[in-house]
Design brief:
Largest sheet: none
CATH architecture of the largest domain: Orthogonal Bundle
CATH topology of the largest domain: Arc Repressor Mutant, subunit A
Distance between the termini: 87 Å
Structural class: mainly alpha
CATH class of the largest domain: Mainly Alpha
Strand content: under 5%
């Protein structure tokens, strides 16, 4: 087994961040995600001698996905609150001004909430494709779906995410306009006639 360790280290360990990211989105909980990745790595190490592929990343992600579902079915402890890493959606390396930071944080929160409210099969497809930048073929391997099904599922997931974002954004616009209207009424009352 010592002979397999360097190959395992090269094939699997560089993908631990991606494995954790997928596990965190599927479990919606940082501690459970850490447990899933740890268990998945143990399984990967145990079965590495039988690994005959050339894509350690997709192989590890499939193990993480299966471990996640195995552990969630056995424990059924899904929590509604998940921590969110703002760096996932950050595209700028420059530091934004305070107004930009607030707006970016609001957008990040909207996307996070919309993703969390998607069914798990849509959420996992979006995470694998958009955050982990995996190919359709890799996603098909991980999920066990045909490539065409992955593509149609991804399309439906994007549509559901778009609809959730539109709904959330229209709700926040209504809240903002209600707050502004209420503030205007209060300011008018304070002004002398």
């Amino acid at each position: 087994m010592s002979q397999a360790s360097p190959n395992f280290d090269q094939a699997v360990l560089p993908h631990l961040d991606a494995a954790y990211n997928l596990a965190r989105w599927l479990t919606r909980n940082t501690q459970e995600a850490e447990d899933v990745v740890q268990e998945a790595c143990l399984r990967a190490l145990r079965f590495y001698p039988g690994f005959r592929g050339d894509d350690g990343r997709a192989w590890l992600m499939k193990i993480v996905r299966n471990t996640c579902y195995t552990l969630s079915h056995s424990s059924r402890t899904h929590r509604d609150v998940a921590e969110f890493d703002e760096n996932l959606l950050s595209v700028d390396s420059c530091v934004p001004n305070p107004e930009q930071a607030v707006l970016q944080n609001d957008r990040d929160n909207l996307v996070r909430k919309a993703l969390q409210n998607l069914p798990v099969n849509f959420r996992e497809i979006l995470i694998l494709r958009e955050f982990e930048e995996m190919s359709y073929r890799e996603i098909a391997y991980i999920t066990g779906m045909p490539v065409g099904t992955v593509m149609s599922c991804l399309s439906r997931a994007r549509h559901r995410l778009r609809q959730a974002l539109i709904t959330a954004m229209s709700g926040s616009v209504l809240q903002s306009s209600t707050l502004i209207t209420a503030a205007d009424r209060n300011n008018r009352k304070e002004l002398p006639a």
